[in-house]
Structures are given as structure tokens and as C-alpha cells.
Amino acid sequence: MRVLARMRRPSKAAVLASILLLLAGCGGEAEGGAGTAERGGGAADAGKPGVVASFYPLFFLASEIGGERVNVSNLVPTGVEPHDWTPKSRDLARISQADLFLHSGAGFEGWTDELLEGIEADSGVRVVEAGRGIALIPIDEEADADEHGHEHDGHGHEEGFDPHIWVSPKSMLRMAENVRDALIEADPANAAAYEANHEALAGRLRALDEAYERELSGLPRRDIVVSHRAFAYLCRDYGLNQIAVMGLTPEAEPKAQDLKRIVEFVRENGIRYIFFEELVSDRLARTLANEAGAETLVLNPVEGLTPEQEAKGDDYVTIMEMNLQNLKKALQ
């Protein structure tokens, strides 16, 4: 990763002008990317239940817990930012042919209700909210609009809760239980295998949770400056505080005064790093870091894999392990 050099500080007016010129290109840059990640295409086949997941974290859970006994399909293609994706008629057909459709249930996929209205009543697909039982974090909508100058987008954020539940390992442990239970209900003959696969995955997730607890607890800093307000559950569960450049969607445009306020916060509090994510342009984060005399690091909300990550065999756990290392570096 290229480290940004410190710049001689220009005037505030010049800084804000240069940042605003970049904003038009900062959101929604992710294009088609690689094909949809699949393990069998999501349709029932040869006695295996067909499972369609709304986006990567649920695909990961279903693949790990279902193993070779299920056919799993991810609706959002590899390399595509889920906020930029909307379903098409072929996606409705894939869900209709499946035994299970997994979605977060926390409002991330705002298209879910409309999509499910198009499914025939006799299709037989079970619709499962993988986030059931997780205490959701309310959004102060008025404060959010005041700070970021945007309306909530069409991905369900108008429901009043932050939908990024999976970004905390504690949430993923609960989601894994819900996916296990859904698979057992759909395919009770293989309940023992699903139980065993779930326990193996839960062991990895518990170890991840314990590492976050142990390695973040004693660090002197607690504030993280992030490009996308996606880390509220991570912050709640591990005692951190996020300061976000953009709102709940990575394409939401901040106001000039917000950018100025964040630059001042970074300078006044000695923040060393501004975090960005890989499926969205990093130009705004880098510009802010240059102005504030900081550097940049990746903090991945694990909404999807890049083609390179998929090719390397990365998954939710390995990416969250890399996130932990970057958090420790920033919070020293």
C-alpha cells in the first residue's frame, strides 16, 4: 500500500474545493466484476437443498455450514458493492427455484419486500432473516441528515436502524446459528452434518471475537475515522467510536463543512490513519488524509470479496483478521 507523504498545508478554501471536485466520482464506481459466486447455483439438485444468499456474508455462512450438502448461490457478483446492486427478473427466478432465501432482515437489502412479492405462493421457498435476534442500533435520522446532507437511500435504511450487523464477529455468531437452524429445518436428514459444520465455523468466529476483545481492549486510542459509516456494530461490541466521512451508503455525499470538521478532528486528536474500503473509490479518503497529515489504511466492511480476494481463498474470517491488524496499527 502506498503511504501518503505529508503535504504543505494549503488554505482551507483550496482544500475543500479540491475535495468537492472529487466527490462526483467517489460513489458507485464498482462495475460488473466477476460472475456470481456459486456452489451449485442455488437451485435444488440431486437431493441437495438450493440456497440463495442476498450478499456475501450470508453466502459465506451458508457455504460453511451447508458444505457439500447444499447448492449455494450469491445474488451479488464478486467485486460489486452491494449498495450499487439491484435484483433483476432472473434473480427472482433463482430465488423461486431455491429451498431457502437468506437475507439479513436488518434492512440492508431494501429491495427484499418488493422482490418477494413477485414470488409465486406455491414456490415453496423459505425466506429466512439471518439477523434475527440481534439488537439493532437505531439511526438518529435527523442528525444523520444534518451531518451528511443526504436522504437515506433505497436499501432499507429508512427503517431507522443501521443495517451493517455482520461487521461484528459477535453478530456473525448469532447469524451462523440462524443459518444452521434454517438448513436443519429445510433438510433434517443432514442435521448432524450441519451441526458439525456450524460448530467448526463457530469455533473460528469465537476465536475471532476473542482476538478482537483481547487485542483492542488495551490500546490507547478509541476513535476510528472511516470513509463509510458501516462499523457501528463493531464499535459497539469492542468499545470503539467511528467518525464517518460518508453515511450509511458509501456513495452518500458529505457536505463541505463535514469534510472540514473531520480534517480538524483528525489534526486536533492526532489521528494517524483514515480508513477506506476496497470496493469503493479511495480518492476522498486519500485527499482528506493528505490535508490532515494522516495516512490511509483499509478497513473492510466485508460486504463482498474482490476477485483477487476470492482467487486467494480469503473469506469473512481472514478479512476480519486483517481488519484487526489495521485497527491495532491505527489505535496505537
Short description:
With 332 residues, the chain is an alpha/beta fold.
CATH topology annotation of the largest domain: Rossmann fold
So, the CATH homologous superfamily of the largest domain? Nitrogenase molybdenum iron protein domain
Q: Which sequence of SSEs, written as H and E, runs from N to C?
A: HEEHEHEHEHHHEHEHEHEHH
What's the total helix number?
A: 12
The first-to-last residue Cα distance is: 19 Å
Strand order of the largest sheet: 1-3-2-4-5
Describe the overall structure.
The protein is α/β, with parallel strands linked by helices. It has 2 domains: 12-30 and 220-331, Nitrogenase molybdenum iron protein domain (Rossmann fold, 3-Layer(aba) Sandwich); 38-210, Nitrogenase molybdenum iron protein domain (Rossmann fold). Helices cover 43% and strands 11% of the residues. Strands 1-3-2-4-5 form a 5-stranded mixed sheet, covered by helices on one side. Strands 7-6-8-9 form a 4-stranded parallel sheet, with helices on both faces. Helix 2 packs across helix 6 and helix 2 crosses helix 7 (191-217). It is globular.
Outline the fold blueprint.
Layout lengths: L11 H12 L14 E2 L10 E4 L2 H11 L4 E4 L14 H8 L3 E4 L8 H6 L8 E4 L11 H8 L20 H18 L4 H27 L5 E6 L3 H7 L2 E6 L9 H13 L4 E4 L6 H10 L2 E4 L8 H6 L3 H16 L1
Parallel strand pairs: 2-3, 2-4, 4-5, 6-7, 6-8, 8-9
Antiparallel strand pairs: 1-3
Helix pairs in contact: 1-10, 2-6, 2-7, 6-7, 7-12, 9-10
